[in-house]
Amino acid sequence: MRLFLALMIFGTFGIFVLTEGCNSAHSDENTSAMSYPKPQYKLDRQQTHNKWSSKIPPVLTVKSGAVIEVQTEDAADEQLSVNSVAADVPNVKFEPIHPLTGPVYVEGAEPGDILQVKLHKVEIGDWGWVGIFPGFGYLADEFTEPYLKTFKFNKNDKVAPFTETINIPLRPFPGVMGVAPATEEMLSTIPPRENGGNMDNPYHTEGTTLYFPVFVEGALFSIGDAHAAQGMGEVCGTAIEAPMRIVYELNVIKGMRPIQEPQYETDDYYAVSGFATTLDEAAKKATRYMVDYLEAEHNLTRNEAYVLCSLAGDLKIAEVVDVPHVLVSMHMSKKVLGM
Description:
mainly beta; 9-stranded mixed beta sheet; 7-stranded mixed beta sheet; 20 strands; 9% helix
């Protein structure tokens, strides 16, 4: 059973509204050549910010159901290039890190609602990089020298050559997605929070549907920090950081059971996630959230839901490096649930 129950759109005021009649906002792509909805709006790499706050004004206002194409910049915001070397790593400043395309104001979104985000297309750009930044990473005390490796890509590439014999499968996904938190403070994008943010979850790939709790009017959704490939944990602190083209759809869901943190699903599984300052607490939160889901959506008692988590739930470490928080998810097979 998908979380999507009903969409109710209510008019509200944004900074400005772009309608389907605005030619400059339309995608030029041929609908018949795509297996996903035609984008109605476009945002480029200059329409970005790199903090989380309810005070950041939207760059676009849309109705629920809008399909948006965005260009995202690499995580270092062009401080590195395909020709950069390890000696350039110490010169990278953290202040510009995580340029996020947005925010997008969604009419009708109010605190207590759910913002559904469907990732229709995630397309790699022409290059990417991975590096070791001294002082950052899961084994920062052991790896103290800068390192950098860059890659050249074509949009149809399936692997990244790592050595002459090792190829990394490309599974592009946005590392950062989220809505604005209920604060006027300008928060760092580095750690994940209840609004989403820097979740760095490799399962958030094309075809995934995500659910975010809404904390402020309009939701104010942003996306960026795209990764061409990343293992669970992102242990060295970086993935293959790369600019990308992403097409996503935003829907406001009202009257749904409340969720505390982002959840997501595909055709194969439903998943929850929990952040905390320790893996132990993050794993406990993810387990509780899955119990909540099973109890509410599948008519199980709380005891039955807890036992099912033990029998069929899969805990996964999404990332361990975005201090002070780590992120753990739990997946539950839809086949097990009879869906």
